[in-house]
């Protein structure tokens, strides 16, 4: 066993014996329940392998993104994933990047509303856009030029979808992966919604993992070492 292996084994033993978390040898991981990420999703499988390589288990908890961010900020030895690394979040966490490729973001309308035929953001400003508060969707909407008066922001994506069904918003901003999940969940045809306008490319932002800055420095070093060895390429 090399010097580094001995060091990491020692670090893991130290971590398991200190009361930094609810359970010993378990790291709390918050993920966004509204992001369409299931427990067998490649992102979570990659994260599970990463933590396993660091001799840690994953105690997975689901929460809306805004709540998950707040809880991660206030709890030592806590990760949030997947999360976009945005300028507004940069100084809040210890970052592990990239964990996974990002997502394209589109403005979606109901197929029956073909007269909402916008081709650019300026045209879209004449309509009400549904988005998710505290997420990459909100960040992208503001970045491309929308103002609060153009938007109807909610905590949950399903609330946006229900508003679209009831014509209380004209478009919702979401990724194709999440829209596919929504349509399956509520038993709508796969072509019920139309991607009208692309407002963000998947390569613009990458998914990362972020950790509370209050976390044990030895744990952070251990995770950093395992992350650099295991995740060479972002997963989809």
Q: Classify the helix fraction into a percent range.
A: 25-40%
Structural class: alpha/beta
Q: What is the N-to-C succession of helices and strands?
A: HEHEHEEEHEHEHEHEEH
Shape: elongated
Widest sheet, order of strands = 2-1-3-10-4
Name of the CATH superfamily of the largest domain: Periplasmic binding protein-like II
Largest sheet: 5 strands, mixed
Give the termini distance in whole angstroms: 34 Å
Looking at CATH, which topology of the largest domain would you report?
D-Maltodextrin-Binding Protein, domain 2
What is the name of the CATH class of the largest domain?
Answer: Alpha Beta
List low-confidence stretches.
Answer: 1-26
**What is the count of β-strands?**
10
Please state the CA-atom Rg, rounded to the nearest Å. Answer: 20 Å
Our count of domains comes out at 2
Q: Let me know the average pLDDT.
A: 81
Q: With helices defined by DSSP (H or I, 4 residues minimum), what is the helix count?
A: 8
The portion of residues forming beta strands comes to: 25-35%
The name of the CATH architecture of the largest domain is 3-Layer(aba) Sandwich
């Amino acid at each position: 066993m090399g010097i580094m292996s001995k060091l990491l084994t020692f670090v893991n033993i130290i971590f398991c014996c200190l009361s930094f978390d609810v359970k010993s040898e378990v790291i709390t991981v918050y993920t966004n329940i509204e992001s369409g990420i299931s427990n067998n999703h490649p992102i979570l499988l990659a994260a599970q392998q990463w933590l396993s390589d660091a001799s840690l288990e994953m105690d997975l908890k689901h929460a809306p993104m805004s709540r998950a961010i707040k809880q991660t900020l206030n709890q030592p030895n806590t990760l949030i994933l997947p999360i976009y690394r945005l300028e507004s979040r940069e100084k809040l966490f210890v970052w592990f990047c990239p964990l996974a490729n990002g997502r394209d973001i589109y403005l979606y309308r109901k197929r029956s509303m073909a007269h909402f035929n916008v081709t650019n953001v300026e045209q879209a400003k004449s309509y009400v856009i549904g988005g998710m508060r505290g997420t990459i969707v909100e960040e992208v909407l503001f970045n491309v030029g929308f103002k609060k008066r153009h938007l109807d922001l909610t905590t949950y994506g399903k609330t946006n979808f229900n508003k679209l069904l009831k014509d209380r918003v004209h478009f919702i901003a979401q990724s194709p992966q999440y829209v596919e999940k929504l349509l399956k969940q509520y038993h709508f045809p796969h072509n019920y919604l139309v991607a009208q306008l692309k407002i963000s490319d998947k390569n613009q932002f990458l998914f990362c993992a972020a950790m509370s800055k209050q976390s044990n420095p030895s744990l952070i070093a251990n995770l950093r070492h395992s992350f650099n060895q295991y995740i060479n390429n972002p997963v989809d």
